[in-house]
From TrEMBL:
Residues 84-139 form the Peptidoglycan binding-like domain. Keywords: Signal. SUPFAM superfamilies: PGBD-like. It holds the Pfam family PG_binding_1. It comes from Candidatus Kaiserbacteria bacterium RIFCSPLOWO2_01_FULL_55_19. This is Peptidoglycan binding-like domain-containing protein.
């Protein structure tokens, strides 16, 4: 069976069973990259462009429902003491790689170094616990953002706003006047002004 026949068979199988293709995508987590690989495979078999377009269309709806893959482009070396977004992204990448992480999510500790050692061992990289050029290259080979993707960093938790100061309740007298406010912004009294036809008096409460 030549390459063209294999490609044609695969294409026709997908076209004949679009529901099955969608089911496979949903249940097996077939990613957009995997679908692109299938398309590239068909192209390598010199399958007609019209058939390839039909295959892409049959898988298009299914791939739209697939969750966005984790991506981040690593640009910095990381070691014990490193902090920030790169460490957060590293932790997510290690988890995505199947590493059971024990380190801090945002600060590179000795435990993070141990997690990196596990990743390096899994991928045949010298086990230093340091994210240097070779380890970054492997991380980027697996998780680099492509085709306009943005980094999948978990949003930073927002700090709880400082609750407003609670001022003691002040009974407002039934008079015309204005509040007396203390240096802390709380009302500490009320200045009443009463006006008669002859005089006006002022008093504070």
């Amino acid at each position: 069976m030549n390459k063209y026949t294999v490609g044609l068979f695969l294409s026709l199988a997908l076209l004949a069973t679009p529901v099955t293709a969608q089911a496979i995508t949903n249940t097996k987590g077939l990613s957009a990259d995997q679908v692109n690989t299938i398309v590239q495979l068909l192209q390598s078999f010199n399958v007609e462009a019209s058939i390839i377009e039909k295959v892409k269309a049959s898988l298009g709806a299914a791939t739209s429902a697939v969750e966005k893959r984790f991506c981040h482009t690593f640009e910095k070396d990381l070691t014990v003491g490193s902090k920030g977004d790169e460490v957060i992204a590293l932790t997510q990448a290690l988890k995505t790689s199947g590493i059971t992480t024990t380190g801090d999510a945002s600060k590179f500790t000795e435990n993070n170094a141990g997690d990196v050692v596990a990743f390096q061992a899994k991928h045949g990289i010298r086990q230093t616990g340091y994210v240097g050029p070779l380890t970054r290259a492997k991380l980027n080979a697996l998780y680099r953002c492509q085709n306009g993707e943005s980094s999948s960093l978990v949003p930073k938790p927002t700090q709880n706003p400082i609750p407003p100061k609670e001022c003691p309740s002040i009974v407002t007298p039934a008079c015309v006047g204005k509040a007396i406010v203390g240096s802390d912004g709380c009302m500490i009294g009320w200045k009443c002004t009463t006006t008669t036809s002859a005089t006006s008096t002022s008093s504070s409460y």
